[in-house]
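Re: the request from the purification team.
They wanted to know what the chain is likely to look like in 3D before they choose a buffer screen. I agreed to run a prediction and write the result into the notebook, where they can find it.
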Amino acid sequence: MSTVAELSQSLSLSDTHAFLQSVVVDHPVVSKSWLVEQALALLAQDIAVGDVLADPAAVKAYLRLKLGGLPHEVFGVLFLDAQHRVIAFQEMFRGTLTQTSVYPREVVKEALALNAAAVILAHNHPSGHAEPSSADLNLTQTLKQALALVDVRVLDHMVVTAASVTSFAERGLI
């Protein structure tokens, strides 16, 4: 059976759009929000069953659906166990159109409460520009240092827009 990420890669954007359009047109009770909820549920199942690092495309797709279309900044954390299986995704902080305040103490508290061994940090840029800022880089280092004190590894930090996801790990920034 194919994963959601494999299916999404096998269809072109126009094929995917045409399929979704036909579903919505042929079944007027099906709304776009329902489709997004269903896609999130499928992606959550994909990333929950094993090592999230084995399918980074599914993690990116999940985060893009979860955060990409929001009109304000949100900072979230994917908490993982020692085998890098998902414990939970938590929306930790909500901000304005251009910024959000992140408190490392709260991230550490939640990691300890969930008994997490590792995390993937994520936040969206409502502007549509997925390039990490210098503030994003500084925050990542601060969180990495704070979490290291309690033996929680930061595996990645992803900047999410509706169209793309930028991975700090893929760029060698972690």
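For the purification team: The radius of gyration is 17 Å.
Please add any questions underneath this entry.
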